[in-house]
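Tokens as discussed.
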């Protein structure tokens, strides 16, 4: 399993990126509810996801996804954060969600955040560095979440031997 230090190196994620993400915390907080709403509108627009969501408690799910959104801006990205991401990946494997939908949902989240930055920062250079930090943390999240799927596939290969 990869360490957080390796993950940060591979994505060229710096302490400056961590500070930039943390600086977005107030703006993210003001937009958390809108994030939850738009994420859910997105999920409920896709029939395969609706089938999966119907068996779960809507409010709880909404809160879990909202908390995850805020965790992007905590400013602390250590091995504890890595474990948190690994757990999230496994939760989706467990409910039988195809990894395709995780990738697609991340695209929706990416657009939400990039638009948020574009609409709230007038300085071009500031927008660029904030966007880069956001892109990195989202790709790191996706990487670790898909790792859980790969690990599960590998387990199946070994079991079937
Ligand atoms: C659970 C994040 C996409 C359905 C969770 C949890 C987080 C999370 C943080 C809580 C995990 C835990 O602590 O146990 C994300 C992120 C996504 C994503 C970052 C995309 C980038 C989706 C999609 C669906 C979905 C597309 C579609 C149906 C669920 C369900 C659970 C869950 C059903 C509950 C799992 C359980 O009850 O154990 N998600 N999620 N998620 N998510 Fe997502």
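Sequence:
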């Amino acid at each position: 399993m990869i360490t957080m230090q390796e993950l940060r190196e591979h994505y060229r994620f710096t302490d400056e990126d961590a500070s930039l993400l943390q600086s977005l915390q107030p703006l993210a907080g003001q937009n958390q509810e809108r994030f939850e709403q738009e994420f859910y509108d997105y999920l409920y627009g896709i029939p395969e996801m609706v089938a999966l969501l119907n068996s779960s408690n809507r409010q709880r799910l909404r809160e879990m996804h909202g908390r995850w959104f805020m965790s992007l801006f905590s400013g602390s990205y250590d091995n504890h954060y890595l474990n948190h991401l690994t757990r999230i990946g496994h939760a989706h494997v467990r409910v039988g969600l195809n990894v395709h939908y995780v990738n697609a949902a991340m695209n929706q989240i990416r657009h939400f955040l990039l638009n948020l930055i574009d609409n709230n920062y007038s300085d071009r250079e500031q927008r660029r560095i904030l966007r880069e930090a956001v892109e990195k943390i989202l790709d790191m999240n996706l990487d670790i979440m898909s790792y859980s799927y790969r690990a599960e596939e590998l387990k199946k290969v070994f079991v079937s031997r």
